[in-house]
Amino acid sequence: MKLTILGGGGFRVPLVYGALLTDHAEGRVTEVVLHDLDDSRLYAVARVLAEQASTVADAPTVTATTDLDEALRGADFVFSAIRVGGLEGRANDERVALAEGVLGQETVGAGGIAYGLRTVPVAVDIARRVARLAPDAWVINFTNPAGLVTEAMSRHLGDRVIGICDSPVGLGRRIARVLGANPREAFIDYVGLNHLGWVRGLRVAGRDELPRLLADSDLLGSFEEGKLFGVDWLRSLGAIPNEYLHYYYFNRETVRAYQQAEKTRGAFLRDQQARFYEEMRRPDAAALTAWDRTRAEREATYMAENRETAGAGERDADDLSGGYEKVALALMRAIARDERTTLILNVRNQGAFSVLDTDAVIEVPCLVDANGAHPVAVAPLPDHATGLVCAVKGVEREVLAAAESGSRASAVKAFALHPLVDSVNVARRLVEGYTAVHPGLAYLG
Ligand code: G6P
Ligand code: MN
């Protein structure tokens, strides 16, 4: 089986390859093709993969190319994990937004819109090529903002594109852990959009264990989301929100913390990764050791400003290996080998979430088998959550309209309608600021 990884020179590719190396069963991936625009990044990552494979007998072969069509031909699975504009682009997304006093996070608020506006045209081009060159391939989209990008691609690939994120999985795992439940036996009742969802229940053998967690202050305050949101607020909600909702519920504090940070997340990662890729140019560099050190530092500092404003302290050791690669492998196995399983994924809701139209991509538990991912029908959200989901979906649709038409007015509308952008004038200035710094937004006339 052939797996093509777009963004193959990306820093998290060794996580995916490491997961593939643990799979020795019939029908596993035997061939990995890395595609990237940048040769030196491909070279760096290929060095890490070669060290990972050195002790594994049946390791998948790895080839690298900068030719997209060649990479796609004959692929059974395509992972799309690209970053249009690179980490410099991410840092600019943050800077422009924070200067206007609004959030610049890569997936939430103004920053997420700017990143989406640059990424959607590229993702659509990829989707069209996949439809032409590898029509039977399954596309697994990691590219952020993942829900929006998956919806853009689904207009060309239908249900053959599935978006993934490790945050709901991590959340479910943490809740199961504090409740003493086996995450494999638990059904996580979760719904929303990517980075905008809530766990409303956790069922083990048909019994909802979440009320037990909400009733116990010690348990509730003992894990990441409890520390981030605070026990009282979780009880008021009666649900456990995805960690990215911290940017909504504590917006003022997070914006201030990001404004005051020595470096924004994007700028920190830009500099950190530049050092790693530079090091990989040295012929004697220990590639895997350098990569792993960089990875550990990245994971330890994830959402550091949010945790600081909440007084949440360090991350739990158990949370440091995200599980990003495990979701991807589990999904691929379920499809390729008809190993039926339930995973929280980003798919067109097909009526499973009735406040949105059937083509709207949502994040929801899905039954996965050889025919793809089938969303499980879910109970409605409370009004406040439905309102947020609908508002943000409306923003996403405006981003898609802007990317399709090149209309600047649509881009302004996307920013202006976002619940975390507080004035149409701010939205106008954001479009000015972003088009000035991002060559990838030149299409907005
Ligand atoms: C989480 C999110 C991903 C994001 C990742 C890395 O896992 O779900 O969407 O890409 O964190 O975040 P970072 O700030 O390290 O790039
Ligand atoms: Mn994510």
Descriptive account of the structure:
This protein has 445 residues and is an alpha/beta fold. Among the domains are: 2-163, 3-Layer(aba) Sandwich (Rossmann fold), CATH 3.40.50; 168-249, no CATH class; 251-310, no CATH class. Helices cover 51% and strands 15% of the residues. It has 20 helices and 13 strands. It has helices spanning 13-21, 39-53, 68-72, 86-99, 109-133, 146-157, 167-179, 210-215, 217-220, 224-229, 231-237, 246-249, 251-260, 265-279, 287-300, 304-310, 324-337, 383-405, 408-417, 424-437; strands at 2-6, 31-35, 61-65, 77-80, 138-141, 161-163, 186-193, 196-204, 207-208, 240-241, 341-348, 361-369, 372-375. The strands form 3 sheets. Strands 3-2-1-4-5-6 form a 6-stranded parallel sheet, sandwiched between helices. Strands 7, 8, 9 and 10 form a 4-stranded antiparallel sheet that branches. Helix 6 (146-157) links the parallel strand 5 and strand 6 (161-163). Helix 4 (86-99) packs antiparallel against helix 14. It is globular and about 50 Å long. The model has no long low-confidence stretch (mean pLDDT 97). Manganese (II) ion binds at residues 146, 165, 167, 195.
Short précis:
The chain has helices spanning 13-21, 39-53, 68-72, 86-99, 109-133, 146-157, 167-179, 210-215, 217-220, 224-229, 231-237, 246-249, 251-260, 265-279, 287-300, 304-310, 324-337, 383-405, 408-417, 424-437, and strands spanning 2-6, 31-35, 61-65, 77-80, 138-141, 161-163, 186-193, 196-204, 207-208, 240-241, 341-348, 361-369, 372-375. With 445 residues, it is α/β, with parallel strands linked by helices.
